[in-house]
Write a structure and sequence with these properties.
Shape: elongated
Distance between the termini: 18 Å
Number of helices: 5
Radius of gyration: 18 Å
Largest sheet: 3 strands, antiparallel
Strand order of the largest sheet: 1-2-3
Bound molecules: zinc ion
C-alpha cells in the first residue's frame, strides 16, 4: 500500500505519482473504546512545488488485521509476548477474550512458528537481531521485531505488515 503510493492514482483527480503520506488518522477500537488507535494513514495529493496534484487528502486503511485469524495485530502481539513470558499459550490466549476456541492458540502458534525464519529474514535489512538472554527462537524473533519498529507509531506486527507490505504470518 504505502510503498506503492507513488504508483497509485489519486481517487479524486486520478493522477498517478502525486500521493504522499501525511500523518495518521485515529479511530476507536471496538473493544477498547477509551483508547484511540491508529487506523489509517492520511494521504495527501501533492499540489506543492511544481507537482500538479489536486491537494485533497484521504485515508488509506492500515494492515492491522491478521489474515484468516480474526485477530488484530495488537492482539496477536499481546498473545505472543504473554505466551513466551509465561509458557502458557491457552491462558495467554484467554486473556485476549477473543471468543475463539481453545484450539486457536495452538493453530496460531503453529503459524507463527512456521513463519519465524521468514520474519527474521525480512527484518534483517532493517536491523540486526538484538542480544538477549533467552535462547528461545520465538523470544528472539519478538525482540528483533521490537528493535526494528521501536519508533514506529503502529505496534510491531502492524508496522511489519505496513512497512514490508507482506503478511506477518
Ligand atoms: Zn488528486
Amino acid at each position: 500500500m504505502l510503498a506503492k503510493l507513488k504508483t497509485r492514482a489519486c481517487p479524486h483527480c486520478k493522477q498517478v505519482g502525486r500521493l504522499i503520506r501525511h500523518g495518521f488518522s485515529r479511530g476507536y477500537d471496538q473493544k477498547h473504546r477509551r483508547e484511540k488507535t491508529v487506523r489509517a494513514w492520511r494521504v495527501f495529493c501533492n499540489n506543492r512545488l511544481r507537482t500538479a496534484g489536486c491537494g485533497r487528502t484521504f485515508s488509506v486503511w492500515i494492515a492491522d488485521k491478521i489474515k484468516r485469524l480474526f485477530l488484530t495485530a495488537d492482539n496477536l502481539w499481546a498473545f505472543l509476548q504473554q505466551a513466551i513470558l509465561t509458557g502458557n499459550k491457552i491462558q495467554a490466549f484467554r486473556e485476549l477474550q477473543s471468543g475463539l476456541s481453545d484450539s486457536a492458540p495452538y493453530r496460531i502458534w503453529k503459524r507463527f512458528h512456521h513463519a519465524q525464519s521468514a520474519i527474521r529474514t525480512a527484518l534483517r535489512p532493517l536491523c540486526e537481531p538484538p542480544e538477549i538472554s533467552s535462547q528461545q527462537p520465538a523470544a528472539l524473533t519478538l525482540a528483533h521485531l521490537e528493535a526494528a519498529f521501536s519508533r514506529h507509531p503502529l505496534g510491531p506486527i502492524a508496522a511489519f505488515q505496513v512497512t514490508l507490505q507482506t503478511f506477518f504470518v
